[in-house]
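R.M. (postdoc): so does anyone remember the format we settled on? I'll just put the structure tokens first.
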């Protein structure tokens, strides 16, 4: 694996080749990955998670944020995770078009990741990859995920600030309740606010927040028109304010604890021989009175 200092040197010069290779190595868990990760010296750069339904304008929004950040001299990394679906290629192509002006910019690293069949939709190496990005000189780290399945909940357990992007459309309010978005959102963005029903929708979110005991001094609702670059400054201010509050409240410690547990569970899972489990099950099931507790004990 490559020396972190060489990767950081490349990042400083706008050459992301070694970084890209290292990301692939980590995703593939090549030999030595655990030791490599354990030797990283990450900076506590907050991770910004952007989630929401497909087509809400997440990539367009990120493109706008990137524009503001690089103008301020920041280096930005964007990881976008798409569910592995027949539309995966299409989604990546779409993102490429949306973020095209940044693909070759020396201050911007963009990488699309497959979700690799991981249950909730997030790539299973996200904690590893974001920690790598925190160690090689980026100032802003963004993770884009499509809000399907459990991915909002997962991104909330990864990101210091979770931004939920919605669009003013009838029926969304019902969806929002179902998927528990109230619990995961640190900020709501109502994108496509050029639509006539935007204000009604914003009012609705405020009302739902009240019903769910979510304080609107903590969780802001920001209207944007990403395709016109409207609202980017407000959003950046809200993100910065949330991260400041987060540190003051000590919420970042809770997040670290949750990530530690996640990593330990993942590590334990890797030790289980699922092939053998399947074979043993054949035998165990053939006997009368199969007991699942007795059976699982052998694998714990
Ligand atoms: N009318 C309008 N269209 C937008 C806005 N933001 C994004 N779009 C369009 O919505 C479509 C989906 O955007 P995209 O960023 O790919 O959404 P994502 O799937 O959430 O990443 C694109 O055609 C964008 O041009 C907006 O504020 N207003
Ligand atoms: Mg997108």
């Amino acid at each position: 694996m490559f020396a972190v200092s060489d990767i950081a040197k490349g990042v400083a010069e706008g050459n992301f080749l070694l970084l890209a290779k290292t990301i692939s190595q980590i995703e593939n868990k090549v030999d030595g990955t655990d030791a490599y990760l354990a030797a990283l010296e990450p900076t506590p750069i907050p991770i910004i998670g952007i989630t929401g339904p497909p087509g809400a304008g997440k990539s367009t929004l990120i493109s706008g944020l990137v524009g503001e950040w690089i103008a301020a001299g920041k280096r930005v990394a964007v990881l976008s995770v798409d569910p592995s679906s027949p539309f995966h290629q299409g989604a990546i192509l779409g993102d490429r078009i949306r973020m095209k002006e940044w693909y070759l910019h020396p201050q911007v690293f963009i990488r699309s990741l497959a979700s690799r069949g991981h249950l909730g939709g997030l790539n299973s190496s996200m904690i590893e990859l974001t920690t790598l990005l925190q160690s090689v000189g980026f100032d802003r780290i963004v993770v884009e995920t499509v809000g399907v399945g459990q991915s909002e909940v997962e991104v909330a357990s990864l990101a210091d600030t979770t931004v939920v992007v919605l669009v003013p459309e009838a029926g969304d309010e019902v969806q929002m309740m179902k998927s528990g978005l109230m619990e995961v959102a640190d900020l709501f963005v109502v994108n496509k606010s050029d639509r006539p029903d935007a204000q009604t929708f914003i009012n609705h979110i405020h009302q739902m927040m009240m019903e769910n005991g979510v304080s609107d001094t903590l969780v802001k609702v920001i209207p944007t028109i990403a395709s016109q670059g409207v609202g980017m400054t407000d959003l950046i201010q809200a993100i910065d304010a949330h991260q400041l509050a987060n540190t003051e409240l000590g919420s970042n410690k809770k997040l670290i604890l949750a990530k530690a547990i996640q990593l330990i569970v993942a590590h334990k899972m890797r030790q289980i021989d699922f092939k053998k489990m399947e074979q043993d099950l054949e035998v165990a099931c053939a006997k009368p009175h199969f007991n699942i507790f007795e059976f699982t004990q052998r694998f714990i």
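R.M.: ...and that's the designed sequence above, right after the tokens. Also worth knowing: The longest strand covers residues 76-82. The two ends are 32 Å apart (CA to CA).
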